[in-house]
Amino acid sequence: MSNETKKWYQSVPDLLKALAVVITAITGLIIAIDKPSDNKETPPKEPSAQTSVFDGKYQGIRGYTDDDRRSPLNYCLKRYAFNATIENNKLTFKSDNRTFTGEVNSKGVVFINETDIWPQPKQGLIITGAIENAKMTSEYCGNGYFRLYKEK
Which residues does the annotated region (Disordered) include (predicted)? Predict the structure, then answer.
């Protein structure tokens, strides 16, 4: 019977065994490649795409400069001091019992409007301009300034 050739259906089990060996070898290789190394050092994280050079903690001041404000002095102060944070181009701070949330673009330009303030002012308020010297305009209090200084 040693000279007889096997029929195709007699060769299938041998082919399946060979295929199982190949699949096992490939699976082992994939596991070995995908396994984390035993090296305890991890490479430093690369900054996220949204990380801004302006991210950080800031001291801020803002105030109204118009002498002919439409409000008594206790509503339109010449100076409000506050702490602010910029994270991923998002500016947040609390001032005058309100929470402000605005944006700082890649060139350091601040933008906040009345919809970014809670509770919202009854009349419009916009802050826009360079982070160190932006303009603040209120329909109620008039013109003013807005400045942020990075904490060291």
Answer: 36-65
